[in-house]
Amino acid sequence: MHDRDSVEPFQPTLDSLAGFEVPDWFRDAKLGIWSHWGPQSVPRFGDWYARHLYREGSDQYLYHRRTYGHPSRFGYKDLVALWKAERFDPEALMDRYVAAGAKYFVSQAVHHDNFLNYDSALHSWNSARIGPERDIVAAWRAAAVARGLRFGLSEHLGASFSWLATSKGADERGPYKGVPYDGADPAHVELYLPNEDHHTRDVLPKPWYTTNPWWHRRWLELTNEMIDKFQPDLLYSDGPLPFDSDDHAAGAQVVANLYNTSARTHGGRNAAVYTQKTRDADLVRIGVLDVERSQEPEIRPDPWQTDTCVGGWFYDVRARYKSPEHVLEILVDVVAKNGNLLLNIPQLPDGTIDDECSYLLDAMARWTAICGEGIFGTRPFRVYGEGPGRVVIDHFREDRVEWTSQDFRFTQRGNVVYAFLMRWPAEGSALIRSLTRSDTVRSVRLLGRGQVDWRHTDEGLSVRLPQTSPAEELNCLAIELT
C-alpha cells in the first residue's frame, strides 16, 4: 500500500505503479471528446499522412505529389507551415461538446509526426512557432477547465522514430528515381529524426518502438514536459507503455510523474489516469486499458476505455461518418460493460467542424438531455444486457449491429436499474427477462416521458410503452427496485 498522505506516492517501477486506483471522476464520466488534430489535417486526406506521403505509389503519395509537389521538393516540413488554424474557437467547440454529454476532453499533444501542438522549450517544431503560431493545447485546456471538464493529453510520440523513417527514402521509378526525399537532408533532422536505419517502404513501421536509447531519453523529456506544463487528468499513449523494459524505464518514469503531479494537487492522492493499449497483466494494472476502434465482449471488472472517431482520425474528404444512432449504440454498449467512450470529432485545418459533425453533436445533445441519467455516474448491472445482438469483437471493426426489440443494455445507480431499448418494439411492449421475481420492482419510468405501466411475471418484467418514443435514437427505462 502507498502512503496516500505523501506528495509523491509512486515510484517509477511497475510494482509501485500497480497501486494505481481508478479515480471516481473517470468511473463516472463515461464520455470524452478527443481533438485528434494537427498539421496532417491540412491536405484533408486522412490519417498517417506524414508517413505515407513518402511511400511511393500510396494514395497519399500520389495526392501529395499532384497537389503540393514531389516530396524531395515539398515535404512534410513545408506542409506544417500551411496549418494556420485561423478559425479555431475552442470555447465555442467546448460548449458543443459539453452539451453533447462530454465529461472530459483530450487534446492531441503530438502525433507520430513529431510536431508538438504546444509551446515547447525543448523542440522547435511546435504550433507556437510554426503554422498557427498558437499554443493549441493551452487553448483547449483553458476552455475545458472553465467548463468543469477533466482535461487529458494524447501522445503518439513513442513510435515516431520508426514511423517517420519513410522520409529517408527515394522513388524507385519515374522522373525522380533515386532523388532523396527531404527527410534525408541533415538540416531537418530535428523534425525527421536520425532514423535512417529504420527506413522501410512498409505500411506499418517496424519496429513500432525503437530500441534506440537516445530516442527513449528524448521521448521521456518531451513527455515529462507535457505533464509538467499542463498537469493533465489523463495521459494517453498510442501503444503499450513505451520503453518499459530498457535500462531507463522511461515509460514507468513518465507514469510516476503523471500520478505524482496529480497527487501534489489532490491532497497526496492521485486523480490522474494513464491509458495504454496492452492487455499484459503487469501493465494493465498500472492504469486503464484502451481499446482502439473496438469493444469488449463482457463486463470488465475494472473501468476501461474505447477510443474511436466519427470518420477518420484526421480530416478525410473520403471518410464515411458514423450516424448518431451508431455512436449512441456504441456508447451504451461500452458503458454497460464498465467502459468509457473517447470520441474523436474531426476538425478541418482551420479549426472548425463540418456540418455532419455539427448534426451529430446536436443529436447527441438532444439524446443526452433525455437519456443521460442512465449513462453518467452509473455502474454496471449484474449482466451487461440481454437479447441476440452482439458487437463484433475484431480489431478496428465497428460494424453496426442489427439490433432487435429483444435487445437491452443495462446500467445501475443505487437501486435504479436502467434498461436501454436497443430497438423500439413495434408491438408496444418490452419484456426484460433479466429482471426476475427476486428483483422487487417499485416503479418504472420511461426517460423523457414519465411513469409507464408494468407487470412482473415469471417471464420477467413486462412494460407497456407509448405509441411514440421520446428519443429519436435508442430509449431508456428507469426501473426502481426496493
TrEMBL record:
<dbReference type="InterPro" id="IPR016286">
    <property type="entry name" value="FUC_metazoa-typ"/>
</dbReference>
<feature type="domain" description="Alpha-L-fucosidase C-terminal">
    <location>
        <begin position="405"/>
        <end position="472"/>
    </location>
</feature>
<dbReference type="InterPro" id="IPR031919">
    <property type="entry name" value="Fucosidase_C"/>
</dbReference>
<feature type="domain" description="Glycoside hydrolase family 29 N-terminal">
    <location>
        <begin position="6"/>
        <end position="373"/>
    </location>
</feature>
<dbReference type="InterPro" id="IPR057739">
    <property type="entry name" value="Glyco_hydro_29_N"/>
</dbReference>
<protein>
    <recommendedName>
        <fullName>alpha-L-fucosidase</fullName>
        <ecNumber>3.2.1.51</ecNumber>
    </recommendedName>
</protein>
<keyword id="KW-0378">Hydrolase</keyword>
<comment type="function">
    <text>Alpha-L-fucosidase is responsible for hydrolyzing the alpha-1,6-linked fucose joined to the reducing-end N-acetylglucosamine of the carbohydrate moieties of glycoproteins.</text>
</comment>
<keyword id="KW-0326">Glycosidase</keyword>
<dbReference type="InterPro" id="IPR000933">
    <property type="entry name" value="Glyco_hydro_29"/>
</dbReference>
<dbReference type="InterPro" id="IPR017853">
    <property type="entry name" value="GH"/>
</dbReference>
<dbReference type="Pfam" id="PF16757">
    <property type="entry name" value="Fucosidase_C"/>
</dbReference>
<comment type="similarity">
    <text>Belongs to the glycosyl hydrolase 29 family.</text>
</comment>
<keyword id="KW-0732">Signal</keyword>
<dbReference type="InterPro" id="IPR013780">
    <property type="entry name" value="Glyco_hydro_b"/>
</dbReference>
<dbReference type="Pfam" id="PF01120">
    <property type="entry name" value="Alpha_L_fucos"/>
</dbReference>
